[in-house]
Specification:
Layout: E1 2-7, E2 10-15, H1 26-40, E3 47-52, H2 63-68, H3 77-87, E4 92-96, E5 99-101, H4 103-106, E6 113-117, E7 121-123, H5 137-145, H6 147-156, E8 160-161, H7 162-167, E9 173-175, H8 180-192, H9 196-207, H10 211-229, H11 232-242
Parallel strand pairs: 2-3, 3-4, 4-6, 5-7, 6-9
Antiparallel strand pairs: 1-2, 7-8
Helix pairs in contact: 1-3, 3-10, 5-6, 5-10
């Protein structure tokens, strides 16, 4: 589930499913989208703070839910959430502990300030699942970190730590695990105390040159993702996942 709380003009949006390492279901994407849309013009909210319950940020898509409820139209829940995040007019802060898998990593490129634990682990497993990246990462990652590192992270799909995520430009601060949330809250509170119209205008100007292109890329990625999800490579990957074995792509 998604839990939300507004305190001192900071809206906390928590991936609250610790027993599943905060894996995100379609229902959770819709709830997170609603929280963003409802708060965009709410004067009681000046900053959004994403975090995860328990010891993890999020392990990404809930694959079981994704298999049971594949995309049915051109605007699946994950796309609705990502577009709401990309268009969000106020500062977005993220507090990352433990696992940040898939969208748990790609969404960080949409955040304005990211605090991560020294022992946080990141993974972009898309190609290992027979699908393509999402979240606008095929556009944002090369811009932020250069083609070579973006290709390494998205194509090799290896687990990487906070040092590499910081090198890649996805993080602002790396601290001890027990310092992540306090620092993220401190930054969020500091942003919330700034002149709100000046902050919103600054964020709009920062994104003005590429927002339309980003929206188009996010949409293209999700549609390609959905097409690949119905293909034989993804079926082999998902079958292997359910059978708890490594996928075999040797015959493709």
């Amino acid at each position: 589930m998604i839990t939300t709380q507004i305190e001192n003009r900071v809206l906390s949006i928590c991936f609250d499913r610790a027993d599943k390492k905060n894996a995100i279901t379609n229902e959770m994407y819709l709830a997170a989208e609603k929280a963003l849309l409802d708060s965009a013009d709410n004067s009681d909210v000046r900053v959004v703070l994403f975090n995860g319950a328990g010891g993890d940020f999020t392990s990404g898509n809930d694959l079981v839910d994704f298999i049971k409820n594949p995309p049915k139209d051109d605007m699946p829940p994950v796309l609705r959430f990502l577009l709401a995040l990309a268009r969000y007019p106020k500062p977005v802060v993220a507090a990352v502990n433990g696992l940040a898998v898939g969208i748990g990593t790609t969404m960080l490129a949409h955040c304005d300030y990211v605090v991560a634990a020294e022992n946080a682990r990141f993974k972009l497993p898309f190609v290992d699942l027979g699908v393509c990246p999402e979240g606008g990462s095929s556009l944002l990652f090369p811009q932020v970190m250069g083609h070579s590192l973006a290709a390494e992270l998205l194509m090799l799909a290896d687990v990487f730590g906070s040092a590499k995520a910081n090198q890649a430009g996805l993080l602002n601060e790396v601290v001890a695990a027990d310092e992540v949330m306090p620092l993220a809250q401190k930054v969020a509170s500091k942003l919330a105390a700034k002149a709100p119209n000046a902050i919103r205008t600054t964020k709009a100007m920062l994104k003005k040159s590429y927002l339309e292109q980003l929206e188009a890329r996010i949409t293209e990625e999700i549609h390609s993702f959905a097409a690949l999800l119905n293909g034989p490579e993804a079926q082999e990957a998902l079958t292997a996942f359910m059978e708890k074995r490594q996928p075999d792509f040797s015959n493709f």
